[in-house]
Write a structure and sequence with these properties.
By secondary structure, the protein is of the alpha+beta class. The protein contains 10 helices and 9 strands.
Length: 383
């Protein structure tokens, strides 16, 4: 099990809920490794004992198998959303809060809650959304999925009844030294169209969390990956290496010949164990998000930056938009729904971005921008 380079050897504090606090005393600048005699800048940070609660408190026993799994997943994502929003608001000195857009779907088809904070001092835009949907899949939507799982009982024409619920999060900080991040964790059930109220014919989990910095700090990257390596290793030692590789492959932008960021974990169609074991795994991964990401923003949000560094962040965000609109399966699936809620589907878009013709940034050898490009063009192992 890998250890985070930002985790101290001392015991954890109660405020971090069993997740070790982060040693926030600075690290090597992102350009090149500093000589031993060179000073390493220290970024002022708060006392980890004052940090908010990282662990969601659901309104029911999530391990009670007598309650349908779909209902327990709903309880989990609702408490997860509330916990993440509260933690992010604690990093926002402007006082900006998440605005909730709660909505009901027609004819008992589910509900959703898109919470967005934008125009803040720390966060230009942050969205944390939950969605619960009960409907039918068209052939076009099924084409975005692994249809072979339906081959034995689906006629290939009938619309497939389905249930899905999940929580997704995309955060775009204002400071270019604070990384963008994304996660999505979801549970899917498919029913037989001849018996839509019966037990699901197929069910699986999907999800993952990834990091997209504009400026690369090795200690930040190692910390982020170490948290998820530990979460995975607690369930299956093969999960992290497989899901890290899958993440690098999934978030690849072919026309740019680069990955969207520096990866994390990604998995889909996860049904290789008992649903209860997989549910615990997904809960652990989603609960690992704040310990993995909160310290990075807390550490970088007040770091000085130049106009040129801000421009580079905007250029990198442009590539982020290209992936989301052109490649991401989740975006395509959402927009192909019968009643898509477009604002919620596109909440992942940054508030600002930039497309500059043949930018010089990212091409100058020895520059921090070029170093990032070297990594996104040739993914590395962080743990």
């Amino acid at each position: 099990m890998a250890a985070s380079p930002l985790l101290p050897p001392s015991p954890v504090t109660a405020a971090t809920n069993g997740v070790a606090a982060v040693a926030l005393n600075g690290d090597t600048p992102p350009s090149t490794a500093a000589p031993a005699s060179s000073p390493v800048p220290t970024v002022p940070t708060s006392d980890p004992s004052t940090w908010p609660n990282f662990i969601p408190v659901p309104g029911t026993d999530l391990d009670d198998a007598t309650t349908p799994l779909r209902l327990r997943m709903i309880h989990h994502i609702k408490s997860l959303q509330t916990t993440i929003c509260a933690a992010l608001e604690s990093l926002e000195p402007s006082g900006a809060k998440f605005k909730s857009s709660y909505y009901l779907r027609d004819a008992s088809k589910g509900f959703g809650d898109s919470r967005v904070l934008q125009g803040g001092q720390t966060f230009e835009k942050a969205g944390v959304a939950i969605s619960v949907i009960k409907s039918t899949l068209s052939k076009a939507s099924v084409s975005q999925m692994r249809a072979e799982r339906f081959a034995e009982w689906w006629d290939g024409e009938s619309e497939l009844p389905y249930f899905v619920c999940g929580c997704s999060c995309v955060i775009h900080p204002r400071n270019p030294h604070a990384p963008t991040t994304h996660f999505n964790y979801r549970y899917f059930e498919i029913s037989d169209p001849t018996d839509p109220s019966g037990p699901p014919k197929a069910s699986w989990f999907g999800g993952g969390t990834d990091l997209t910095p504009a400026y690369l700090y090795d200690d930040d990257a190692r910390h982020f990956h170490a948290i998820f390596e530990s979460a995975c290793a607690a369930h299956n030692p093969d999960y992290y290496p497989a899901f890290k590789k899958w993440c690098d492959q999934y978030f690849y932008i072919p026309h740019r010949r680069e990955t969207r960021g520096i990866g994390g974990i990604f998995f889909d169609d996860l049904a290789d164990g008992s649903p209860e074991d997989l549910f615990r795994f997904v809960r652990d991964c989603s609960n690992a998000f704040l310990p993995a990401y909160f310290p990075l923003v807390e550490r970088r949000r007040n770091q000085a930056f130049s106009e040129g560094e801000k421009e580079w962040q905007q250029i990198r965000r442009g590539h982020y938009v290209e992936f989301n609109l052109m490649i991401d399966r989740g975006t395509k699936f959402g927009l192909q729904m019968k009643e898509p809620r477009t604002e919620s589907i596109l909440v992942s878009m940054p508030l600002t971005s930039r497309w500059e013709y043949e930018p010089v940034q990212g091409t100058i050898e020895g520059s921090p921008e070029k170093r990032l490009m070297d990594v996104v063009q040739n993914p590395v192992e962080w743990v």
